[in-house]
Protein 1
Amino acid sequence: MSTEAYAGVWRPGSGEQRFNRPLPLDEFKAVDKTYFDKGLRLVDLEIADGKYTGVWRPGSGAQWWWQGLCLDDFKTEDKLYFNQGLRLVTLEFHSNPKGIYKLPFDDDPAWKLANGNWDDPKAGHGTDPNGAQAFSFDFKHDFNNDNIGEEGQNVRAARSGIVVFAIDSLSCNTWNLKPEDPCYGARGEGNLVVIQHADGTAATYAHLKQNKVFVKKDDSVKVGQVIALSGNTGNSSTPHLHFDVHPSFTDWDHWTNTIRILFQDKNHACWIPRVGDALASNNS
């Protein structure tokens, strides 16, 4: 016998109506897709004890929903969807939020943050919140603690999405070059992967090792998938991984217009890494 308790509100209406018993997240997503394909849209969502219950009514057009977001991530997603012509129809508080992004590398204590966001108290990308790389991160694998770093480390997708740009043929390092150098003027990002997420945002993974990008344009990638090896190509002072997120794919070029994001790792749920913080990736 079921011990689940339900409460409902009924109003005049017409057409089809569906609701589900409390389901684990993956099962709920499957039910939602089935109803979406039949022309129904979520009009209410409840979360209790890690299970999901929804109500679907006839509807059309796009539908997006998230569960368990950090407040800052929620605000970012709401703004993105608002600009796409979508409006909130229901809101559910979640007591155990998680960041959307995971650290883009293996769980290895040799990974350190060399430069953080513009407001990092130790070392950031400039001092202007509107700067070109204001919300970027430079992650360095520095096993020897010599501040030089080592290339050839796994780079993992921080979030699932579709590859919209990938290049791995470049060999040039353009750091502090003079105009007469053959590599002068080569692209500063070096070898690069750009992954676009379901909400339209795009993450860049830069300075990758030559001939060591393992994905191509239009590939679907899952969070945690190894997409490349880290390198020292482009305008890079030492081997490192430059990572940031942009509002859309068209905004990624030249690293302009980055947006503030939060990570989750083994020790944090909704977190902006700062230089000197221990990094404990749970992305595999």
Note: The domain at 101-264 is CATH 2.70.70.10 (Glucose Permease (Domain IIA)).
Protein 2
Amino acid sequence: MNKSTRAIYLSALAAPLFTTGAANAYLGGFELQDGYGNFLSEVRQTNEGQYGTNNGGPGGIQTPITPGSGLWYAIAGTMYPAFSGTGTAYATGHSGFQYSGSQGLVITTGCDGWGGPALQYGYRLDSRDLNGVSPAATGGAIVNISFWTRTGLPGTGEGGGIVAGTTGDAVSFVDSLGNVGFSVGVNQPSTTTDYVAFNNTGTYTVTGIVAGAYSRWDIKLDLGSQTVTAGYYDGFTANYNTLLVNAPLAAPMANIDRLFFESSAGVNNSKSWAVDDFSMHTNVPSPSGLVLLGLAGIAPLARRRR
């Protein structure tokens, strides 16, 4: 290997495995370092997730924006800063509701109370969420997703107003065409106990797993075979439940482009739904990773030439 080739090769090895820029976002643990402000720094109102230092973040500071013009946007429901006598509806970083760290993401419909509609947010993924891989590049790839969720649909038997049969506290995985391939959430089939539910058919399947404590979803979306594998770690019992293995998606996904977060209709300001510690990985190499692979191949060629 000559000196110039060796210098390029060594500098590439020292480079990070993914690239980031000021437009990149990061769900992560919804910490200040992930770019999330604390209570009532509502996610649509500022550049939530677009600053911070975690996952190679660009740094920067929290900046007010036109609501919905960042990575978070409104889909349905009465949203902050609309207030009523009982509270406000919002998605925000919130201490005391985290699985780990200093805060998690809390979504509540307190503005509308028991008679109000579900609150639904959209979140546009980008390369910082996928360790340097553009969401547009995930077509045909395998995407692994893990996150913690603490849910609660207080029914009429618990002094609440959730109607039996309600499904909510749901996260959906969506492509750039708007196709929803898979969703996970909670269903209340009675008036008291909530059960874990998932949807890969167009209709939610309700399991016998009681929801409520912080628990973890592990999801593998195989966008080549258009299948999903899903497991649920039950925080109540410390049992791991494999729920799906290579099952068909509810709809074909061209890629993974965004997430939908949906509470249930009729939730008071008890802040019962919180999520935390998102992790997303794909088998698609990042642009910098491809450079490293290419330069790794140059080395033996250079040796042979020498």
Note: Residues 17 and 289 are 5 Å apart (CA to CA).
